[in-house]
C-alpha cells in the first residue's frame, strides 16, 4: 500500500536540541525524513573561577560534547554518511530552564546540509 506522508508526519534533525553545529533542521533533506536518529555525549564540569563571582557561577557549568545524527526515508539512509560535530560551551540551568551557548565544529556533513560552524545558542525546558 502506498500511503501519502504529510510534512507534519516527518522528522527533522539539526540545531542545538539535537545535532549541535548545524542550523535548526539543517541536517539532510529540506522536507524532512520518515526516520532519524541522534546521539550525544557531554562531559561537564564546574567553571574554572569562583562560583561567587556575580552570583551566577553556581548555576553555570562548562561542557564538552560530541553529537551525531542522521535523517532519511529508509534504514540505508540512516547508516550512510552520519553527521558529526564536536564543541564546548557554557550551560546555565535555573529550575527547569536550561540555556547554553556553544562553539560547535561540524566534522562530518554533506554539501546540502546547513552547517553552523561557530557560536550557537540554545534554550530548553526540562519537565522531569
Describe the model.
The chain has one helix spanning 75-79, and strands at 35-46, 60-72, 83-94, 97-108, 118-125. It has a five-stranded antiparallel β-sheet with strand order 1-2-3-4-5. The chain is mostly beta strands and 128 residues long. The model has no long low-confidence stretch (mean pLDDT 88). 4% of the residues lie in helices and 45% in strands. The protein is elongated, with a radius of gyration of 17 Å.
Helix/strand/pairing class, anyone? mainly beta
Order of helices and strands: EEHEEE
Shape annotation: elongated
CA-based gyration radius: 17 Å
What count of helical segments does DSSP give? 1
Portion in strands: 35-45%
* Helix content, binned percent: under 10%
Strand order of the largest sheet: 1-2-3-4-5
User: Could you name the ranges where pLDDT drops below 50 across 5 or more consecutive residues?
Assistant: none
The largest β sheet comes out as:
5 strands, antiparallel
What integer is the average pLDDT? 88
Question: Topology, pairings included?
Answer:
Elements (H helix, E strand, L loop, with lengths): L34 E12 L13 E13 L2 H5 L3 E12 L2 E12 L9 E8 L3
Antiparallel strand pairs: 1-2, 2-3, 3-4, 4-5
Amino acid at each position: 500500500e502506498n500511503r501519502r506522508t504529510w510534512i507534519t508526519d516527518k522528522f527533522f534533525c539539526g540545531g542545538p536540541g539535537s545535532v549541535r553545529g548545524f542550523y535548526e533542521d539543517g541536517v539532510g533533506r529540506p522536507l524532512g525524513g520518515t526516520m532519524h536518529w541522534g546521539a550525544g555525549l557531554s562531559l561537564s564540569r564546574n567553571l574554572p573561577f569562583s562560583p561567587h563571582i556575580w552570583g551566577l557561577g553556581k548555576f553555570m557549568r562548562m561542557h564538552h560534547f560530541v553529537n551525531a545524527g542522521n535523517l532519511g526515508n529508509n534504514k540505508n539512509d540512516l547508516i550512510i554518511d552520519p553527521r558529526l560535530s564536536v564543541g564546548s560551551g557554557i550551560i546555565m540551568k535555573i529550575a527547569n530552564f536550561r540555556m547554553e551557548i556553544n562553539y560547535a565544529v561540524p566534522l562530518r556533513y554533506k554539501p546540502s546540509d546547513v552547517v553552523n560552524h561557530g557560536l550557537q545558542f540554545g534554550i530548553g525546558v526540562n519537565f522531569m
